[in-house]
Design goal:
2 copies of one chain form a homodimer. By secondary structure, chain A is of the alpha/beta class. Chain A folds into 3 domains: about 35 residues, no CATH class; about 120 residues, Response regulator (Rossmann fold, 3-Layer(aba) Sandwich), CATH 3.40.50.2300; about 150 residues, Response regulator (Rossmann fold, 3-Layer(aba) Sandwich). Chain A is about 40% helix and about 15% strand. Chain A has a 6-stranded parallel sheet, sandwiched between helices. In chain A, strands 7-6-8-9 form a 4-stranded parallel sheet, sandwiched between helices. The first copy, chain A, is elongated. At the A-B interface, helix 4, helix 5, strand 2, helix 6 and helix 11 of A face helix 4, helix 5, strand 2, helix 6 and helix 11 of B. Strand 2 of chain A pairs antiparallel with strand 2 of chain B, so a sheet runs across the interface. The structure holds a DNA duplex.
DNA sequence: CTGAAAGCGCTAACAA
DNA sequence: TTGTTAGCGCTTTCAG
């Protein structure tokens, strides 16, 4: 059907520009990578030619030569409010430093392996491994690959690879103290996945602190870090013989579900029960929830992670960074003027 | 401080493997890119050598030669629940096809330009431009760059570049009809940003349909597509002299805020007012909201976008795809047994 | 300050 | 089937 429409834009190279500007290819290259080494005069000629021809330096070729891609990879679970916020923070922080973010998101932990294959091939400048469902074998594998890896919020990874994480234990410990200050006498903990390292740390922090006040902390497993899992977990609380004064939840998203699940069973926070979350998602501040939670210093964690990646040559050994979060005091642990149930405490010596 | 610790892993190349396996470099390359062209025997030897040396083909070099990066870029707003869900869908869909997603997220529309600079340099296989705050000048610029661009949910971009989007007008029209079926006699529309093309289309669909029933649709601008903007916009409804029977909101996130804002003013949906959203976010299904909304067929849109990108060579001209959404019927438009206010309609002839 | 030349690691004719 | 050869577009000595 007629002549081939020359849609394919013949990409202009530094050679083309050099020809037009009457200089060598090397000079054109220098104009775009080390401008101070080219006479102002020549530079102008080259830039004009480049502009006119629509020349744009080829980052692929540059990377091949320089062995630096200026791309950082991130292996992150596809779902979950929390990860999305982390991702967004990473992307912005990297952009500020002229780095790009190559995203590998996965649903099943199965696919992590595929993602890592790609990672290796692309010779990235660094790699962020998020999610506690990434097996140790993957960490080990990546460590040997020569690129600088940092595990994000995977406390268990410390020692194997660089890692940054929020202080889970201190976080839930703080929350527990806050609850004690509200006068609770009993509590329960709703975790996401029992064998996730973050889950364990968070439980430990809460349990230890409550134990000091003589309060036991039964563990309930929601089964996933999702709203639905939290919603369903509410039945465990609703059906319990003696309902706890407070529920500490391992993540905000689960906490939202639990909150709504309890409400559907006629149990309202903070009137009938106190609820705390963990993460500090934007939604925690939504009026519909106004959840007391531990806000992760995401920006700090992200900056630390990036710093580790960019300095990885200058350090031997693994670095471990732990940042502490701050409590967001929300409605769900605020004892209203007419919330007297907590006073109906059974007497203890 | 002692000898340099050889931390830098000398990356093994196909040459190294070739030497060890006693074959030519080309053969090694073939084993990894066109295995069927190598004798099973040789192949085994090569793979063994590669395995032993930890060889991984270099995707950068491959890309330089083949002019295909297998990377698709996405320019997406950094914030917003909706975009995060789109992003996650893209990333998964691409992964299934062995493509990677290079993420460019931006806060201010200002930074879009910087992002596009990077995009050009990386010679991506394709580019997804999301967000209606991306100016036309950028679209034009990218169109000339030779890579296949597709605008995502930017109806206004149709004709300039390829585009896929949900049928905004049909969507709000459907929602409006649903509201009419509930017997409303008045309504208001809360938009995000008045001059966004999606905002206009969504308003138009709603207004046109309601007009046919003789109902006017005043437009209220929230100012942003955020929860907070929606929360604040609620005051316009609360302070109005005659409160509308229903509020149609341009996005779910804004609708959540509006919902909570109204509640804080003592107005509950669906008892006192009906609310509809748009997008079909996961949170719309959360029991705390259970919002009636138009669910975007995100997966379909994403697949269409990817299809356009991968077939871009075979098509001349711009393609425009429009997919229709489906209504999610939630609590916020469900007239309960004791919700009689809608019956108290003032008589109309 | 500028040019010539040698690759970075791989793919793809073309020969053998 | 396998090897040889010539680049992909750029950076970077090394001369001039």
């Amino acid at each position: 059907m007629g002549e081939t429409v020359g849609k394919r834009v013949e990409s202009v190279t530094s050679h083309d520009v050099a020809a037009k500007a009457g200089v060598s290819q090397a000079t054109v290259a220098r104009v775009f990578s080390a401008p101070d080494k080219v006479a102002a005069n020549t530079q102008r000629r080259v830039r004009e030619a480049a502009e006119a021809m629509g020349y744009v330096p080829n980052a692929i070729a540059r990377s091949l030569k320089s062995q630096r891609t200026h791309i950082v990879g991130a292996v992150v679970p596809a779902d979950g409010e929390y990860w999305q916020s982390v991702l967004s923070a990473f992307s912005r922080a990297l952009a500020e430093r002229g780095e790009q973010l190559l995203l590998f998101s996965f649903d099943d932990a199965e696919h992590v392996s595929d993602a890592l294959d790609s990672v290796e091939q692309y010779r990235l400048d660094g790699l962020v491994l998020a999610s506690s469902t990434i097996g140790q074998e993957h960490l080990v594998r990546m460590r040997g690959s020569g690129l600088s890896v940092v595990a994000f919020n995977q406390p268990a990874a410390g020692g194997l690879v660089n890692s940054v994480s929020v202080d889970d234990e201190a976080g839930t410990s703080d929350l527990a103290r806050h609850l004690l200050a509200q006068g609770i006498n009993s509590a329960a903990f709703v975790g996401g996945v029992a064998d996730a390292s973050t889950d364990r740390s968070r439980y430990r922090g809460a349990a230890t602190t409550l134990a000091e006040a003589g309060i036991a902390l039964p563990y309930i497993e929601a089964g996933a870090y999702t709203y639905d899992a939290g919603y369903k977990a509410a039945t465990h609380i609703l059906e319990a013989n003696d309902r706890p004064d407070a529920v500490m939840v391992a993540s905000d998203e689960v906490a939202f579900g639990l909150h709504d699940g309890l409400r559907s069973g006629g149990i309202e926070a903070p009137h009938d029960i106190l609820i705390t979350g963990f993460d500090g998602l934007p939604q925690a501040a939504w009026a519909g929830y106004d959840l007391t939670t531990l806000v992760q210093p995401v920006r700090v964690l992200v900056d630390e992670a990036i710093a580790i990646i960019s300095n990885s040559d200058t350090h031997e050994g693994e670095q471990v960074r732990v940042a502490t979060g701050t409590i967001r005091h929300g409605r769900t642990t605020r004892r209203g003027i007419d919330d007297h149930h907590l006073s109906k405490r059974e007497d203890r010596p």
